[in-house]
Amino acid sequence: MTSSGGPDRISQEATASGRARVNQAGRDQYHNEYVDNSTTTVWGVGAGPAPQAVAGLPAAVELVGRQERAGELLDALDPDRAGPGVVVVTGLAGVGKTALALHAAHQARARGWFGGGTLFVHLRGYDRAGCVSGSQALEALLRAMGIRDEDLPPTTGEQESLYRSALARRAQAGPVLVLADDASATGQLLPLVPAGPGHRLLATSRDTLASPDLAARLINLDQLTPRSAADLIAGALTRARPQDPRPIQEPGALQEVAGCCGGLPLALTIVAAQLTADPGLPIAGLADALADARTRLEALRYQDRDGRSLGVQAAFELSYRRLEEDPARLFRLLSLNPGPDVATDTAAALTGRPLRAARQDLAALAGAGLTGEQPVGSGRWRMHDLTRLYAAELCQRHDHGPPREQALNRLLEHYYTTTDAADDHLRALPGQPVPDRFPDAAAALAWLDAERPNLTNTVPLAATTGHLPTAVSLAECLTVYLRRRRHFHDALTTTEHAITAARELSDRHSEARALNNLGLALREVRRFEEAIDTHTQDLAICRELGDRHSEARALNNLGLALQQVRRFEEAIDTHTQAADTFRELDDRHSEGTALNNLGTALQQVRRFQEAIDTHTQDLAICRELGDRHSEAQALNNLGLALQQVRRFEEAIDTHTQAADTFRELDDRHSEGTALNNLGTALQQVRRFQEAIDTHTQDLAICRELGDRHSEGQALNNLGNALRQVRRFEEAIDTHTQAADIARELDDRHSEARALNNLGTALQEVRRFEEAIDTHTQDLAICRELGDRHSEAQALGNLGLALQEMRRFEEAIDTHTQAADTFRELDDRHSEAQALNNLGLALQQVRRFEEAIDTHTQAADTFRELDDRHSEARALNNLGTALQQVRRFEEAIDTHTQAADIARELDDRHSEGTALNNLGTALQQVRRFQEAIDTHTQDLAICRELGDRHGEAQALNNLGLALQEMRRFEEAIDTHTQAADTFRELDDRHGESTALNNLGNAQDAMRRPRGLPALWRKLTR
Q: Where in this chain does the record put each Orc1-like AAA ATPase domain (predicted)?
């Protein structure tokens, strides 16, 4: 029997399940397996019971990347579970709904859930020739259950009763599963809904078939993940030809092809078929063919030799043509939106329709599977990438000319005016009027967060479609937001388009503003020389225009860039000029900003008291203006200056206030920065556990914000705190993570800093070779970057590691290079630190006079710079060198000075160190009781601070002094305690020293007391 096509053909196919002609060509959509329960082998009209097709599922295809959805669907189908008897799998055309339904149905059958049988009917809901009606589908199912044509009742109602009765009879063997594929309307499914417990109707549809009469469980299917998409293609190729090398040889191209398909199984199946049909075609060749979005839909078509074809565009067309006029128009115009999703109010702006009508149109598109609200209830709608391409083609075809241009104008106007209102909220000081578009700054910020991809893509869209003023203005409105949220690469893109547009408009004022914003973004991504050049261009334009206010702004930001390349004196000059100009113009807010930046520059040249005064002035201005955010920034920077003059408790207080204010203002990034600085201050007063907790909070914020750069910094500082409590392995791990993140971000500067600290941690666990290697890597990066200051720091730490390996000559050379470089850079403080370390290396090769000279230079420089803490450290080391040349009285004097300075500064740790060395010097001049008293003071300080390692060293040296006073029992006890503590801390070297001293004390105790003086002299 042949058919000319059209509705009659569909009707015949739909009612054919169970007849012999389903085996004819072109009727394979049912794939029924026949079970003949009669004893008669000849059947037909009036010939007895008809055969039954109650195991009629088509074959399932291999399921990829749908395990979670398959589990959800199986739970819904379980006949023993309570729930709706109807389950509908919905989703975009080609998303794999039928494959998932068949997989779940076969799984359910294999579990023995549906002993009454499994029935399948194809409803052809989107067929151009017409779909199968509910009554036609019902007839097909009745025939599949053995009802002969002459026994079919004449009316649909009677057929439904017969259907329910047939299901009830089958229920004796178990529940029945009916799979109705490709439904487009609830009317197709309602007659098929089974009655009775356990039976299930499983349907697939592109539309959301929500109806009170249907009461269905809806399971929405989305596109595959990139990995699953690639696996689907690779699996198809290797099933066809197990030795096909292309998936293994071209993994990158495979990912590109999968990406072009947008994870849509239909598209993936098409490209797999294309590659299978042409085994010599490289995957990269297909990727090139799909790369052009303008021709991608045309490329995603496949036709076999029998003329059967698959096409993504054709599948979308079946859904689109069912839309009413308004949703269809919206669907086309949505392609104009440049971002990944669209809000309901944006859709309303595109069409010029009321908000409620736009929501209804979007819901209609979602119901047709052409968009989706993600997440549900968010008011944000997303289209599949391929659907967007299809919509763009339709828009070009149907809305070309004024309709398209008018819609684009409405879109740009909507984005600009709303962003402008949000920006006003972010810039406003307390008490200033703001637009009522948003209730507060938090709401404005939330809107910007949601719309960022759309807004940053709208700037180039405006620039390339001739809307140049909008490109300039929108980029300017985004500046504060992108900087606050640290989206600096977005800022680079938008400002570069704004500069181009401003130049095309010959708008010098806008060009200057855009250059300023570009310079700020360049500085944040560490492209400092480019930032300096950009701000210099901005400054030249402002002076050309006679715009004093913008000139001051340019000077201020130029100063920030100059600081980054250590041109501090120039930075101080530009910030000072900026502050003076703003003061002259009576712009208090900008004056405060310039003072804040001036303070940071003053800190860099160690003019700390001036920096504190400057930050205090800034703080007063912020409080006068009620600017809470700037007040917190001023507090944070003031805290850094206070740390430098060792006013740590005040610094802790200011950083805490800053963090609290940023938290109150919901500025999570700045809160993290304040916590980071608070942690470093806590370390300085040896509140290490609090510091660890604080840095951990900062780390959590960075990870919450996805700020990998700040995460690396937080890890680095956390590692420093962990090192202070001798959790060296954890410190090594955190510094390694910090270095890895910096490497991932290609931030060579931060990588070098992390390697520097990692090397220091490795030294603590005596992994000196690794430390040397790590510091050498740090040194190479610094030289590659031309960062002379960091190079000198790397040399200094490398020298310390070389000393531990007793490679003293190399250490002396590196410390000398470090000191010379710092001297060249006019960094007197760092030069003195390098000299101090050089002196220690010189002591190791017994060049004591040179060591004394270098330590003296270091102490003098620190005294000149009024760094009392470092002066005490240099004096302490000078004292050890003086001891080596037996200038013990001078050594005692220098150690005493060091201890006095530390006590004056309330630096208990440094005081303990100085007392320890003073005690050893006192022993040398046989002032043993004073030595015992001094070591006892050191021991008390170490215990007060919880410094277990220092405590062990103090015990060890105290034991030596006790031996000299022949208090051997006490000496044995203190050396034993020292050895036990070193063992507990896993310091094998310290433990060995303590055990050696313990043995000496035990030996001395066993010797006769009346030994000649000569024996004592020889054995001392």
A: 62-188
